[in-house]
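Below sits my pick:
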Amino acid sequence: MGGIGTWMMGGDKPERTYRFEFPWKLDYLQDTYQKNSMLQSFTALDWSFIVGVVMSFVAVLFTFDAISGERERGTLKLTMSNSVPRDVVLLGKFFGAFITVAVPLLIGMILSLLIVNVSGSVLLDRNDWERIGLMTAISFIYISLFISLGLFVSSRMRHSSTSLLVLLFVWVVLVVLVPNTLGSVVSTLRKVPSQREFKQQKDTMMQAFNKSMDELFKYGSPTQPNPNPKAIELWAGYVTARLETDTRLDDEHLDEQFAQIQLARRILRSASPTTIYNYVMESLAGTGFGRHRKFVDATRRYRGQFVDYIKSADRADSKSLHFYYLKEGLSEKPVTFEDIPRFVEPTGIATAIRDALMDISLLLSLSVALFFAGYIAFLRCDVR
């Protein structure tokens, strides 16, 4: 936080030299020269990836011929010739596929948690176990979505080979193509200046502040013995104006980036259940863009609280010149450490659920809708 600058005008005399600091400024580190932050060099192999990609593919393989395959073999007509309701048949196929996929997944998750817990490298508290439980439940809902999709397509196709081709195409689009490519395409809809372009724009605007340096040294330097209060006032105004302009430009540029990402996320959310699932996992785990945005917002609020505290403590000192934000114009009285505002960022399970609630509702609604679509398709299909 902050920055340091030295100004020397007309030589190195003390009254023409001043070393100052920019206080309470947030610097956003953005490494955009070496890499494109929108594209990952590789995908991390974690449970979110395994469920989102691998288990969804397994669900498709277990259901592509659940109806169309039996119709080809004639076993579906034989089954329906008995007094067995169609909804019972469909539910049996749904839960059979669900248990077949969910049980190995659950065993793998339990083994992973046991390894982590026994190793002692990570200490899981009650809050962590609640998050893990919710993430497991959401993973099962996500798997049921693709099982319902498989049953729906299988009910609509007369041949299992056609059903497999259609499901593979849908799976590639929803799971692979949309999450990995659409984000980069959508980002072009809302242009944001690159870091290099932004730095050039910022330097151009800051040059206006450098044109008034002679006026600043008109009454000397704030660091010379018994400085002229007018010099402190002028420098305080300069530092305040430059700091506020610099902060405003940084905040606006970061907000433009946030707006670009949020637009991409809104479009991706409506185009792929895998993206919705990943957003839920990020929210429940406390990672990803949502957590980063909340951290930045909390940091900005704390910046305001800290500045307000400094001003309040300075106003209590009658000997201070009350010139912000220059150290020579502020109080020199020490402050109590306990009185300084504390940085607080809400990270509890309630906050995570609130952040993920919309995506959970979307994923659950989509899963239920696909199940009923498959149910209706099976009721209307010709078993012959």
Notes: The mean pLDDT is 82. The CA atoms of residues 14 and 135 lie 63 Å apart.
